[in-house]
């Protein structure tokens, strides 16, 4: 925990704002425009993430959106770590990037669902939980048959999935922050009827 005190209030504020702005980059909307397709906010699920862009704009645009969205969280953390030595850069910048993707300032706070941006951070920081997460998703979705409710339940347990691997405090903070942001974001689809 002593590493946290290497960051001043202004350092932390910078990391949060920088992470949020990087996460807010509207990859899906920009690529939809480049590919000459409809604004993803006006079609399908109205989310700006890779799945909606893939289905309603162009498959390649969807794939590229996914890749950019995966990179945003990692980029925010990477930039922060170039500027500060404290490992607490990881949760401040990372969670802010996920929040930025979900509620981007550049799109009137209407963005994606945060999964790709969170996945990029998980792949980098604690990839060992991915098999547990995937197995839990398959089992829970078998019973729920509802994407949002499944995701909300599984991500809520992300910090507990990490415990057996004895994570550092900052990685546990990242997992907890991701869980909170994604549960809040996916709650908007709790009653959604998927086609």
Your description of this structure?
The longest helix is centred in the middle third of the chain and has 25 residues, at 59-83. The chain is 66% helix and 0% strand. It has one domain. The mean pLDDT is 90. The protein is globular, with a radius of gyration of 17 Å. The protein is mostly helical.
Indicate the topology.
Layout: H1 9-23, H2 27-34, H3 50-56, H4 59-83, H5 89-102, H6 115-125, H7 130-144, H8 147-156, H9 158-162, H10 169-186
Helix pairs in contact: 1-4, 1-5, 2-4, 3-4, 4-5, 4-6, 5-6, 5-10, 6-10, 7-8, 8-10
Question: Key terms for this structure?
Answer:
195 residues, mainly alpha
Overall spatial form: globular
Average the pLDDT over all residues and give the rounded result. Answer: 90
State the end-to-end distance: 47 Å
Low-confidence region ranges: none
The overall number of domains is: 1
Question: Quick one: how many beta strands?
Answer: 0
Q: Helices and strands, in N-to-C order?
A: HHHHHHHHHH
Q: Class by helix and strand content?
A: mainly alpha
The amount of beta strand, in percent, is: under 5%
Proportion of helical residues? 55-70%
């Amino acid at each position: 925990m002593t590493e946290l005190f290497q960051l001043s209030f202004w350092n932390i504020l910078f990391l949060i704002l920088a992470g949020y702005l990087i996460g807010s980059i509207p990859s899906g909307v920009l690529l939809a425009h480049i590919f000459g397709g409809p604004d993803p906010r006006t079609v399908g699920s109205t989310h700006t993430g890779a799945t909606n862009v893939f289905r309603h704009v162009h498959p390649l645009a969807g794939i590229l959106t996914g890749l950019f969205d995966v990179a945003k969280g990692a980029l925010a953390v990477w930039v922060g770590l170039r500027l500060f030595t404290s490992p607490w850069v990881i949760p401040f910048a990372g969670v802010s990037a996920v929040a930025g993707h979900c509620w981007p300032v550049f799109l009137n706070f209407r963005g994606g669902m945060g999964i790709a941006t969170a996945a990029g951070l998980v792949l980098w920081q604690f990839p060992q939980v991915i098999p547990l997460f995937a197995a839990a998703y398959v089992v829970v979705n078998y019973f729920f048959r509802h994407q949002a409710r499944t995701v909300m339940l599984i991500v809520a347990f992300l910090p507990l999935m990490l415990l057996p691997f004895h994570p550092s405090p900052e990685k546990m903070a990242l997992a907890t922050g991701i869980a909170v942001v994604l549960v809040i974001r996916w709650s908007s689809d709790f009653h959604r009827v998927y086609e």
